[in-house]
Amino acid sequence: MCGIIGVTGREQALPKLIEGLRRLEYRGYDSAGVATVTNGQINRLRANGKIANLAALADSEPLGGLAGIGHTRWATHGRPSEKNAHPHSDGRVVLVHNGIIENYIDLRAELEASGRLFSTETDTEVIVHLISTLIDAGKPPREAVVLALRKLQGAFALAIMFAGCDNLIIGARRGCPLAIGYGTKQMFLGSDALALAPFTETVSYLEEDDWVELTPEGAQIFNSENVQVDREVRPIASSGYTSSKGEFAHFMLKEIYEQPSVIGDALASLLNPVQRTVELSWMDLDLSRLSRVTVIACGTSFYAGLIAKNWIEKYAKIPVECDLGSEFRYREIEMEPGGLTIVISQSGETADTLAALRYAKKQGQQILAVVNVEESSIARESDAVLLTHAGPEIGVASTKAFTTQLIALACFAIFIALERKKITVDQASDLCDALVQVPSAVNLVLGKSSSLSEIAKVVAPANDVLYLGRGPSYPVALEGALKLKEISYIHAEGYAAGELKHGPIALVDDEVPVIVIAPSDALFEKTASNIQEVAARGGRIILFADRKGLEKLRDFVEVAFEVPETDAMITPIVYTIPVQLLAYYAAVQRNTDVDQPRNLAKSVTVE
Ligand code: M6R
User: Fold this and answer.
1) What Å distances lie between residue 86 and 2, 10, 71, 605, CA to CA?
2) Residue 328 neighbours by CB under 8 Å, 6+ apart
3) Is 165 an active-site residue?
4) CB count in 10 Å sphere of residue 91
């Protein structure tokens, strides 16, 4: 993962590096560092922990210099520590790296055998020594970089500086994104456009195996054959980035509360509420002869895919295969040319999802991306894009990104069902009406958040929690368990309610809260039976249901939360809100770092 930034210009680099790193902190926050080159000498500042620690250090020991590079780390090789923090340097070369060098063990052995001394546990340090060795052998910096890159296996985005070259930065990418920002007498490099947004209005993206020479005067880009190339320079889409939590204690809570509004934005972009139609005919996809749909994503986005499976199979009558980005391509599956693969990703940069997209594309599939970040790699590499319009999501736990993904996927399910004539125009209109109800239903749940804070008092002391749901509520159970795990550090598992008796029911005792998501849909009675099975074994049931459901099950539950009754199509979206709030309040009661939970990063750009 990790985020990198570089700047070369006529003003002090340090403030820009720190501001850029703050914007990249979603990519990792284990440690951070910056380096500049002044009067030919490399200077570095590095700190363990979050950017705030580096910023404090930079205040007390400012680094001078008009060009510099910076890094925020999510540790892969070598534990988080100041020593392992980037930039890495041997005094001649200094660099920052996002990605993983897969052959670093062999390279390190070779370099150590030739007398190179290593001072970190990282894979990155081999790149420093490779380049330095070539410079020692008389190669100029750019040639040394090109030769060194040829020896690397794995993925990288790099920003490299050299002792003796005060304003030169060389950037390179393979497998990881790298953007160039254009200023007046100043140039930038960054892992994404968000990092560069305060400094420039235009960016270009390096393509696979490109490298670039950056000076204050401009950028010279070269492809893998070392031929100078032009890459499209485009305006940065307005990011709406905000570093303020406003009245909220955490970004996560703010983002939960933004849902009625961003769900409204997502709906407005896809659905005409007056004509009661979904407007997706602009997508340049051939959906007429599909025999199946493949959905690929990771984490919370994968659970959005599982809910979409329910909708597409139910309304459009096409089998849907959902796969994890991190598993999909290893089975060497043969895909039908012209078939449809949907990739879902908030960031649009998740490495496994991106790699799966490329695999599906090679197999001749049409790719539809459901993404939040318009300029992301996944959006750029897809044939059609449904933007989710959630706005920047800063909290590591995905909330508004998930519910807006669901809106986009629900619209797509209605559209494809109608295209294939599996539902009538009137049925499609009714489903559109149901979707239009989502913001107000979500608002109703948010209005009762204080009772979820009370229910969280039952969950927060637990060591283990089970979540149960059936049909489209099953992925909501999975999402509830993931949310609780990642921010409260309580062990939680989501199960299909009917699976409980096949094993997990052995875990049920009077210490394990069992959270059941049970809207009054066609599956309610079956889930009700599962609730009774848990109650009969002394289990502690927390029920999320509508009034009808609560009345039926009152005698079996310890605590309950009433969710408004809605059309069955939108229940997975509406029931997600109490699940998010419950996890949030449990985490707050356990005093964890809600927005930046331990060991995680917002965007997972390594496989
Ligand atoms: O950016 P993506 O949607 O591709 O990210 C996928 C997962 O990394 C992400 O959903 C992760 O599971 C979140 N931390 C969940 O809250």
Assistant:
1) 10, 24, 6, 17
2) 296, 356, 359
3) no
4) 10
| 277 Cβ inside 6 Å of ligand 1 | no
Candidates 26, 252, 298: which one to mutate for ligand 1, based on the most atoms within 8 Å of Cβ?
A: 298
Residue 376 Cβ contacting ligand 1 at under 6 Å: no
Decide: 486 in ligand 1 pocket, CB within 6 A: yes
Q: Which amino acid does the sequence have at 486?
A: E
Say how many CA atoms lie within 13 Å of 89 toward its Cβ: 23
Residues paired with residue 499 on neighbouring β-strands, in sequence order: none
Contact assessment for residue 579 and residue 402, using Cβ atoms and an 8 Å cutoff: no
User: Measured between alpha carbons, how far is 602 from 292 in angstroms, rounded to an integer?
Assistant: 31
Residue with tokens 């590591």: 396
Mean of pLDDT values over 425-434 = 97
Q: CA–CA separation, 498 vs 501, rounded Å?
A: 7
396 lines ligand 1 (CB under 6 A): yes
Nearest atom, ligand 1, residue 300 CA: 10
Q: What is the pLDDT of residues 371-409, one digit of tens each?
A: 999 888 899 999 999 999 999 899 999 999 999 999 999
Separation of alpha carbons 73 and 91, rounded Å: 21
How far is C-alpha 162 from the chain's CA centre?
33
- Pocket of ligand 1 contains residue 347 by CB under 6 Å: yes
Respond yes or no: is residue 421 known to be catalytic: no
Mutation pick for ligand 1 pocket among 29, 74, 191, 300 (CB with most ligand atoms within 8 Å): 300
Q: What is the pLDDT of residues 69-105, one digit of tens each?
A: 999 999 889 999 999 999 999 999 999 999 999 999 9
Cα 408 from Cα 52, distance rounded (Å): 36
Read off the tokens for 28. 């990792």
Looking at ligand 1, which atom is closest to the CA of residue 604? 8
The angle subtended at Cα 151 by Cα 146 and Cα 153, nearest 5°, is 115
